[in-house]
Amino acid sequence: MDRYAASGVDTVAGDTAVELMKRSVAATHGPQVLGGVGGFAGLWDASALTRYRKPVLATSTDGVGTKIAIAQALGKHDTIGQDLVGMVVDDIVVVGAAPLFMTDYIACGRVVPERIAAIVDGVARACAATRTALVGGETAEHPDLMAPDDYDVAGAAVGVVEADRLLGADRVRQGDAVLALASSGLHSNGYSLVRRIVRDAGLRYDTRIADYGTSLGEALLEPTRLYTAALLDVLDGPDGDAVHALGHVTGGGLAANLARVLPRGSTVDVDRSTWTPAPVFTVLAELGGFPLEEVEGAWNLGVGMFAVVEDAAADRIASALTAAGIRTWRAGAVATGDAPEGSVQGAKGVDGGAVRLVGAYAR
């Protein structure tokens, strides 16, 4: 009798899951990855860093929050991995760093090999799209602590940037243009509010929503847009030095995630009239009975990333990103002065600039 299996931990299922995910993980490996899949530690040949004069390593870790509850409710697990990569790797590119490698962690009540493999396949596909090697991970079975079909995911990644190419508030100048990069939807933030709205409205995730053209659940599971590759191409191109700062719009919403990458004493008015929030936002707000302005600190409302760039290069950079599949537009400009009334000043412990949203959203 297998005492461990009898206690609720199936090591055979775990091994099966590893076999199912091997091919997708290996597809992210370049010559720097050593040892393949299944080792105690992932190995990455750091001699590739010798071409840098002064390499600075960047690291980030995150999860995808309660969006997982919708994936579990629908039994659709092949997109949540992209959400994880987006939350982790797109934080790294904010400082100008190119991601090198990533690891993931899945905790579950019961290992279902096909489900674990679907999650990891999503991670691997997104890693490949962001030029990141998936060098390792862990699947942990937690019977009694988690329900059999429950799971959670987390990940961490490491990137590198030349020290004199670091992006941040110290490079931002008065008159810089603020570009907005379109999101694909809700991404991976604000889902506790989303689920409460859906519950209070008495809706099911398989309910067809005319404005979405899909079921409610399908719209809510739209995977997080990946910005890393397109931004790295700009940073490595002729206008790379014109990019001064990037702000990833995640938890905290629009104003806060721009304010934290601006210098103290700077101000930005983000013009709402420069874009129209997608139906996924407007329908939820209508169901909840509140205006969009009340959820600017929870949802990205159509902007997944801000780029602060030299004004003279702004149109070229916007065109390059749009051509790469990320619609990009001017949404404001950097000024100096006291924080205006109604602005958000800094965030996440950073004493940064002041940002407020002005005007009305385009309809």
Automatic annotation (TrEMBL):
Q: In which pathway does it act?
A: Purine metabolism; IMP biosynthesis via de novo pathway; 5-amino-1-(5-phospho-D-ribosyl)imidazole from N(2)-formyl-N(1)-(5-phospho-D-ribosyl)glycinamide: step 2/2
Q: Name one Pfam family in it.
A: AIRS
Instruction: State the Gene Ontology terms under molecular function.
Output: ATP binding; phosphoribosylamine-glycine ligase activity; phosphoribosylformylglycinamidine cyclo-ligase activity
- Domain PurM-like N-terminal as annotated: residue spans: 53-161
- Catalysed reactions, as listed in the record: 2-formamido-N(1)-(5-O-phospho-beta-D-ribosyl)acetamidine + ATP = 5-amino-1-(5-phospho-beta-D-ribosyl)imidazole + ADP + phosphate + H(+)
Its main subcellular localisation, reduced to a broad class, is cytoplasm
Q: Name one GO biological process term.
A: 'de novo' IMP biosynthetic process
UniProt keyword annotations, A-Z: ATP-binding, Cytoplasm, Ligase, Nucleotide-binding, Purine biosynthesis
Enzyme Commission (EC) number:
6.3.3.1
Q: Gene3D superfamilies from the entry?
A: PurM-like C-terminal domain, PurM-like, N-terminal domain
| Cellular compartment(s) | Cytoplasm
Ranges of residues in domain PurM-like C-terminal: 173-339
Specify the superkingdom.
Bacteria
What GO cellular component entries does it have? cytosol
- Which InterPro entries does the UniProt entry name for this protein? PurM-like_C_dom (IPR010918), PurM-like_C_sf (IPR036676), PurM-like_N (IPR016188), PurM-like_N_sf (IPR036921), PurM_cligase (IPR004733)
Q: Which family does it belong to?
A: Belongs to the AIR synthase family.
Supply the name of the protein. Phosphoribosylformylglycinamidine cyclo-ligase
What gene is this protein translated from? Answer: purM
